[in-house]
Amino acid sequence: MTLSTHTYINQLAQHVGSEVTLKGWLYNMRSSGKIAFPQLRDGTGVVQCVVLKTAVPPETWDALKAMGQESALVISGTVRADERAPGGFEIDVNNAEVLQQVHDYPITPKEHGTEFLMDHRHLWLRSRRQHAVLKVRHTVVQAVRNFLDNDGFTLADSPIFTPAACEGTTTLFEVDYFEGEKAYLTQSGQLYNEATAAAFGKSYCFGPTFRAEKSKTRRHLTEFWMVEPEMAYATLEDVMQLAERFLSYIAARVLEDRSEELKVLERDTSKLEAIVAPFPRVHYDDAVKMLLEGHERGALEAKFEWGGDFGAPDETYISSQFDKPVMVHHYPAAIKAFYMARDQERPELALGVDVLAPEGYGEVIGGGERATSLEFLHEQIALHQLPQEAFEWYLDLRRYGSVPHGGFGMGIERCTAWMCGIEHIRETIPFPRMLYRIRP
Amino acid sequence: MTLSTHTYINQLAQHVGSEVTLKGWLYNMRSSGKIAFPQLRDGTGVVQCVVLKTAVPPETWDALKAMGQESALVISGTVRADERAPGGFEIDVNNAEVLQQVHDYPITPKEHGTEFLMDHRHLWLRSRRQHAVLKVRHTVVQAVRNFLDNDGFTLADSPIFTPAACEGTTTLFEVDYFEGEKAYLTQSGQLYNEATAAAFGKSYCFGPTFRAEKSKTRRHLTEFWMVEPEMAYATLEDVMQLAERFLSYIAARVLEDRSEELKVLERDTSKLEAIVAPFPRVHYDDAVKMLLEGHERGALEAKFEWGGDFGAPDETYISSQFDKPVMVHHYPAAIKAFYMARDQERPELALGVDVLAPEGYGEVIGGGERATSLEFLHEQIALHQLPQEAFEWYLDLRRYGSVPHGGFGMGIERCTAWMCGIEHIRETIPFPRMLYRIRP
After folding, report:
1. What is the mean pLDDT of residues B144-160?
2. Which of B46, B141, B150, B431 is the best substitution to test chain A (most A C-beta atoms within 10 A)?
3. Are A95 and A48 in contact (CB under 8 A)?
4. Which of A1, A229, A343, B379 is such that its CA lies 20 to 30 A from the CA of A9?
5. CATH 3.30.930.10, chain B: domain bounds
6. B9-100, superfamily in CATH?
7. Burial class of A122 by CB neighbour count within 10 A (0 to 12, 13 to 18, 19+)
C-alpha cells in the first residue's frame, strides 16, 4: 500500500475545483455550532478547511471537534480558490479521518521560555517561525552549492578527523581514535582545500566544523556548517570579487525563493535587496581611522589601537557606515593565520579580507590569499611553534607546483541569521549544539 | 591585481582561433630538437601545447625544456581545433612563464604501492584516475540534492554530536564535550529525521557519519557521508518507490555529466544504463530460498539459515540473479533496528528494505517504515536495554501526531564506488579515514 499519492498544500493551485486528499496535522481550529474550520498543516503550508456538520458522518464530526493541536488528520474535500483565505485556497471537506487524537501538545501559542523551547526542539521545529528560518537555511545551502557548481568549483569534502590544528589547539574537540591515538574534529578545511585546489583548479568543501569555545554568546555554536571555496591562480582581489558575487547571489535567491518565509519573519527585505556587488572595500588602516573618529564622536567607548583585532562593537560600527556588506582587507599579519600571504610592500600586513555584514551581524566571511613560499612557511611554522612534521604534506604543496591561490570560509548559520534578520544563531540549525546543550 | 581572468581548458571550444592565457601545471612533456609539446593540466582538463624554439625567447625555451612534472606554468597562445588531439584542441604557444620549476615530483607514471599513494593523498588527487573518481562523487552529491530538492524534501541537517546511540554503542566515537560530559559522533540522522519529517512532511539530512569499526575491508571508512531522506505519511511501498527513483536518477546524471570520467575509469556503462526503475523486489523468505538453491548448486559455501543477516557472499549471490539493483524486504525484526514497523500479519518481520547493488557492491540503501505506536516503542526500548530517558524526545513524536512514516539511508562513498566500478571505497573520498589512517 502506498500512502504518498496525496496532494500537498503547496500544490493546491493545480487542483482548484477538484477533490483532493490532504494529510497532515491540526494547526488550529475554530468552530461554531454546525460548522468547523480546522486549519491543516502538512509541512508545505497551512490551509483552512470548512466542515459542515451535515456533510460528514456523526462520528467523524465528533472526532474532529475533539481534536487538539497536532492531532494527525487526513482530509478529503474540494479545493476552492478564495482570495480572503491565507494561501488563497480553502477546502470544502466531505470526508475526514483523525489518525491520532492529540491533547496537551506542549507548545501552545502562549509565550514559552527559551530553555523550554530548546528542550522541545523536536516539536518546536513545527512552529511557523522555526519553519521559516529552516526553509531559508535550506535555500542558503542550495544557493551556495548552485553558485559554486555553476562557477566551475569541484566539491572536495575535507576530513572531519584531523591529526593537527589549523588555527591553534585550545578550541579543538578531542576524539579517542584507535589504540590510544587522538584525533581532533576539524575547525576548517582550509589546508586540505589548498591541496584540492591544486588538483581541480577551483574546489570547495562544505560540512560541519567544530569549536570547543566556552562562549555563550548569541553568535556561537559548538557545531556549525561552513563552506570554503579555494582557487588556484588567484589573488586577494579574486577572493574579494568571488565573495561579493557569492553573497549577492545568495541574497537574491533568498529574496526570490523565500518571500513567504521572509514575511513570516517580518524581515525588512530592503536590507537584503541592498546586498548587490560591488561591495565597499576598506583597508585596515582606514578602518582604524574610522574607529578612532567613532571614538572621538562618542559612538565607541574604547579607543581602538592599530594592530588589534575588531571586537563586535567595532565590526558593528564599521558596517554601520555602509548600507551593504563591507570588505576590510590588509589586516596586521600578527592577528591572522600563519599561512596568509604578505603585502610585499608592507610585510607586516596580511593579504586577508573579512566581509562584515550590516545590521550588527559581524564577520560572515573570512579569507584571503595564501603564502606560496616554502621558506616563508617554514619560518612561520617555527615562529608559531607548530609541529613541522604534521605540516610536511601541506608544505609539499609549495614544493610541487606552488602558485598564488586563495579562498574564504562562510558560516552557514551566521549567514542564515543575517538573511532572516533574527537575533540568535541557535534558531538557524535544526538541532543546535552549544556549551551546555547536546540534547535533544 | 586579479589573476583569474584566464581561460580554463574546458572552455577552449569557445576560443578557437583566438589567443588565450592558460594557467596550470605540467602534466607531461615530449620534445625533439626545436619543438616541444608540453601537456598542461589546469584542473578542468589537459591540453597539448606546441612550442617552436623560434617562437619564444631563448630563456623561455630553456625554462620550458628544464621543467619537471607539476611545474607551475602559464602559457599564452592560439587555440587550434585538431580532431587528432585528446580533447580536440591544441595551443600554438607564443609566450610562456614557468612560475615554479619542479623536479622529482613523488608520483610518477610507474606503479606505486597503496600505502605510498595514501601517504601522498594530497598529491595523488592530481592524478587522472583520482580526478575522475572525485568528479563522479561530486555529481553523485549534486544528483542526490537535486533529486530531493525537486521532489519537495526540505534539508534539515541532523546533529553530529549526539547524547545517545541510534544503533548500539560499541562502534561509537566518544568525544570529550565540556566539563566531563561525553558526546558521541553520529552514526545516523534517522531519529532526528523523524522529527523533521513531522515538521516538514518530507525532509533529509546529508552529512558525515562515523563508525568506530575495527574493520579493514575495502568497504569500510571510519568517516563517510550519508544522505537520509524521510517522509511522513509513507509506507514501506513509498520508501521502495523513492529508493528506485532516487538511484535511477543518480545513475542517469552520472552517465550524462561524467561520460569522460567514466571512460578514464574504463567503466562498463551498460551496467549503469541498466539502473532504471522499477527494480525487482524480493521478500526475505524468497531471498532465503534463493540462497539455499545457490548452496545446493554449489555456488555458495555456507548453508544459509532463515533469520540470519546476509553476509557479503550472500548479497553478491542474490544480486547476481538480476541485472539491476534488487530490493530485499520484510527482514526478520530480530536483525533490524528497534524502531522498525512490523508486518501486521507476521509480526516477526520488520517492514525494512535493503537495496543490493549488482556487481558485488552490496547494500547501498537501507531503510523502511518506522513504528508509530508509543506502547510498542516503549517495549522495544526496554527489550534492547536502551536508556528510556534518552529517548523521551523521540517518543514525543508518537505522543503528538504519530503517523506512518519511513525513509532510508545511502552512503555516498559506496554509491560512488559502484558508479565508478572501482574496487576500494578509499578512493571515493578526498581524504579517507580508516582504522590506521588519519593522515594527511
Report:
1. 98
2. B431
3. no
4. A1
5. 121-428
6. Nucleic acid-binding proteins (2.40.50.140)
7. buried
Q: Confirm or reject contact between A102 and chain B (CB < 8 A).
A: yes
Q: Is the pLDDT of residue B29 over 80?
A: yes
Q: Does residue B255 sit at the A interface (CB-CB below 8 Å)?
A: no
Please give the pLDDT value at position B109: 77
Residue A164 has pLDDT above 70, yes or no: no
- Contact residues on chain A for B135, CB-CB shorter than 8 A: 154
CB–CB contact B400 A106 (8 Å) = yes
C-alpha–C-alpha distance, residues B59 and A22, integer Å = 76
State mean pLDDT over A145-160.
98
Contact criterion met (CB < 8 Å) for A154 and B141: no
H helices within B95-180, ranges in order? 114-119, 121-124, 128-150
pLDDT (mean) for B248-271: 98
Confidence class for position A167, pLDDT limits 50, 70, 90: low
Average pLDDT over chain A reads 94
**What distances in angstroms separate CA B237 from CA B233, B234, B327, B352, one per listed residue?**
11, 8, 11, 10
Inter-chain touch B234–A177, beta carbons under 8 Å: no
pLDDT at B168 (0 to 100): 58
Sequence ranges of chain A with CATH classification 2.40.50.140: 9-100
Residue A178 pLDDT > 70, yes or no? yes
pLDDT at B420 over 60: yes
User: In this structure, which amino acid lies at residue B142?
Assistant: Q
Domain A121-428 architecture = 2-Layer Sandwich (3.30)
Please tell me which residue of chain B has the smallest CA distance to A392: B440
Q: What is the mean pLDDT of residues B99-125?
A: 94
**What ranges in B8-127 are assigned the alpha helix state H?**
58-66, 114-119, 121-124
- Could you count the other beta carbons within 10 Å of the beta carbon of residue A59? 9
pLDDT at B317: 96
A43:B200 CB<8 A:
yes
pLDDT at B1 over 80: no
Structure confidence by residue, pLDDT tens digits, B390-415: 899 999 999 999 999 999 999 999 99
Model pLDDT, residue B346: 98
pLDDT in tens, B172-192: 999 989 888 889 999 999 999
- Run of H or E including B198: helix B190-200
Beta bridge partners of B41: B25, B46
Residues present in chain B in total = 440
The Cβ of residue B58 has, within 10 Å, a number of other Cβ atoms equal to: 9
Nearest to A240 by CA among A371, A365, A412, A141: A365
Residues B407 and B229: beta-carbon distance below 8 Å: yes
For residue A436, is pLDDT > 90? no
Chain B residues with beta carbon closer than 8 angstroms to that of A429: 157
Chain A CB within 8 Å of residue B139 CB: no
